[in-house]
Design brief:
By secondary structure, the chain is α/β, with parallel strands linked by helices. It has nine helices and six strands; from the N terminus they run αααααβαβαβαββαβ.
Length: 201
């Protein structure tokens, strides 16, 4: 019987690793699920045939390996208009004040693949502020940022995103803001013009 790989790192060792990564690199994973982190770290140890000591040495001395570590252990959960109540409240309570600003700047820290930043862009477009807005998305995972820059998403996800869009009280159709191409949805060029994505490793 194959040994359970999660036995290779204890929860105490995991806690020490989390604190160590925070101290050395400034990345705080204390809010992450311990079970998920344990699985992901153990998988890396197994895949690279490393001890915990070897892992720490590579994380200090090999920037490329540290980037791979970030890619492997980060969890990227996002969707367009993920919290419809938030967007409804934002539209009703915050947007009316934006007219007093010459420029609107939005920073989405931990933007993942960009769906929420494009949700903000759609909101600003609908409210007439897009032409004087700048949207900035950052993440520690360079792979998800590449997808955010491409702004092409699985068309099958758009049905759920459309439900969120309508639940937030937005008019018309979410399909007005993307072009369907086979099994993909490409965000409109107008929305892509006003954003910037950057990795913060």
């Amino acid at each position: 019987m194959t040994k359970d790989l999660t036995e290779q790192i204890s929860y105490q060792e995991l806690e020490e690793l989390i604190q160590w990564v925070n101290q050395i690199h400034g990345f705080d994973f204390r809010g992450y699920s311990r079970a998920s982190l344990k699985r992901r770290v153990t998988r890396m140890l197994h895949f690279h045939h490393l001890s915990l000591f070897d892992l720490k040495a590579l994380l200090v001395n090999d920037h490329d390996f540290f980037e791979e570590f970030i890619v492997q252990i980060t969890v990227n959960v996002t969707e367009m208009f993920r919290d419809p109540f938030f967007y409804k409240t934002l539209r009703e309570k915050v947007v009316p004040y934006l007219s007093s600003y010459q420029r609107v700047k939005v920073w989405n820290a931990g933007c993942s693949t960009g769906e929420e930043l494009y949700s903000f862009a759609i909101l600003l477009k609908l409210e007439g502020f897009l032409d004087r807005s700048f949207l900035y998305g950052t993440d520690i995972n360079p792979q998800v940022l590449e997808q955010a820059k491409r702004a092409i998403y699985d068309l099958s996800n758009m049905k759920g995103y459309s439900r969120n869009y309508h639940s937030a009280g937005f008019p018309g159709s979410l399909a007005d803001f993307y072009v369907a191409q086979y099994d993909a949805a490409a965000i409109s060029n107008e929305l892509k013009k006003i954003r910037c994505f950057q990795c913060i490793i």
